[in-house]
């Protein structure tokens, strides 16, 4: 046996168990009150929780966007993820104009090659549709890309129209893939942005004011309606507001398989952040933008009640110096995105579980089990069971933390959560049986993470 975890208080999405865990050749081989035999390494988890490794299905590493490239690559980004308790990411390979989907997939495979310390998979974002591209969808599914993203915003670059969305939904569904949408009305936002700039409204807060919640609610409802016409399930990424939530709830109440995620920034930060002085509001320029306290409360409630299924990060870091600063004098030039890959687990544990907004099992469900199920990785990932990958996180629920750029490992010069205090510190992280992080030390070499060939989407999940 390679690793034995003793005094383990295991929490999965459905179960609680106290005992020992045996790990061998990257798999969980035993779960028992006492696991017989000696292990090369024994870890004592007394007083801690043992969770399935967290899965972040929304990251943008080494991504060219708005003239810049996100500042974490697959080495720094996966190291930061591991320090935060994430053992698998699914990143977005973006199809450029005139590119084949295979080109996008291979470009991103090369970006990750030799760099990742945890496991990784890819969604492909389809931004330029034609018959040849449609025909590639089942080919990509064979490569383990079982989800595709469509942008209903970013007019002139990533955005596609409703007809293209409909065709992608139909072909993806027939091929066993799930379609994800970035739901904001790109046409209207385009007008609002140029009107604001023309009228001298150039500060970061106008980024938020040019992307109102109605634009998100409309696109969410439209995306769901297109999916209903196509007879295909749909997944809404980074949902932020009540207007969009109502559309998801109504679809689900009617029995339609609409799924949605939110992100820690929408649960914990608000529009007020855009008003920070000295251009600091630029740190929060992301799309959709941060919303109100009332929206935060609605999102927490939806996580608790099951109307939202996943918390991912949308980690898309750009440095304040030299990148965000490019938008001084014109908010539309601030690269959209913010960092968060490292802090999701502790933040949701502290703000969610300890503040009694969600219980421990629901916590595991939204950060690990539901992403594994929806994106074709369960039961290899997303749970602790005999036969599953040995992706394990040991978290000390008593140990306090203060989020800071000084202690984070992300390759970016700020964190939107600077100074946020809580309890629940990730202590040990095991990915496929390799101890990647232990007590603040990185123990894995770049390139030891594996590409995950994900399974097809299996129809109605929850
Ligand atoms: O502002 C964001 N969210 N940047 C990353 C790209 C996207 O829309 O997910
Ligand atoms: Zn997006
Ligand atoms: Zn994103």
Describe what this molecule looks like in 3D:
It contains 12 helices and 19 strands. It is of the alpha/beta class and 462 residues long. It has a domain at 52-374: Metal-dependent hydrolases (TIM Barrel), CATH 3.20.20.140. The strands form 4 sheets. It has an 8-stranded parallel β-sheet with strand order 6-9-10-11-12-13-14-15. The protein has a 5-stranded antiparallel β-sheet with strand order 5-16-17-18-19, with helices on one face. A 4-stranded mixed β-sheet has the order 3-2-1-4. Strand 10, helix 3 (131-142) and strand 11 (147-151) form a beta-alpha-beta unit. It is globular and about 70 Å long. The model has no long low-confidence stretch (mean pLDDT 98). The site of N-(aminocarbonyl)-beta-alanine (URP) has 8 residues, from loops.
User: Widest sheet: strand order?
Assistant: 6-9-10-11-12-13-14-15
What does the overall shape look like? globular
Distance between the termini: 36 Å
- How many strands? 19
Q: Please summarize the sheet with the most strands.
A: 8 strands, parallel
Uncertain parts: none
- Bound heterogens, unique: N-(aminocarbonyl)-beta-alanine, zinc ion
Assembly category? single chain
Within the CATH hierarchy, at the fold level, what is the topology of the domain at 52-374? Answer: TIM Barrel
- Overall mean pLDDT score? 98
